[in-house]
Amino acid sequence: MKRRLILVAVGALVLAACGSSKGSSTRPTTPALASPPTAADTTAPATSPTPASPVEGYWLSSVLTPDDARAAVPKKYWGTFVGGWKTFQYGLKIEDSYWTEFDIRDGGTPIPSDYGGTYTISGNKITRFRGPPGGQPEDAFEWQVEGDQLVLTLLLDTDGPSYGVPDHVYMHLIYESHPFTRQG
Predict the structure, then answer these.
(1) What are the tens digits of pLDDT across the range 130-151?
(2) Considering the entire predicted model, what is its pTM?
(3) If DSSP codes are grouped into helix, strand and coil, which group holds residue 109?
(4) I need a surface site. Which of 13, 38, 76, 139 has the fewest CB within 10 A?
């Protein structure tokens, strides 16, 4: 539910940007994470274990702006999104069979969201579960890692709508509208 509330706030920026004739081609810079976030705190061990799969590790999205949200979210849903921040970013920790998503508002401290869960990897497909592996999938993605970039493509989304917006709209904004960059 937190993810949807935060994304609702991103949408408010879309509405504000639509009403302004001013534009800027300057994108905010991605805040540097000295070390990837963890669920316990926002510091990570100095060294990370060797991942079993290239998709495993710590990942950080690009900084999302109102223009990014406007480009990713269908216009008919813009009115549903409300809130009060200027930039948004997502962190992913995919490690030790657990997927943790972090929300980073206005370049602040990464905050674990409630959209974590276990995962399984089969070839270039990763499936995230709300419960133990083998249960109902929350979502499934095709993944591709090239260098330090992770690209996710949504294959399956079993979550229902939130605030009248289909979950795949949120999923597209979070996971498909930009690549993630490996951290640490």
Answers:
(1) 766 666 668 899 999 999 999 9
(2) 0.69
(3) coil
(4) 76
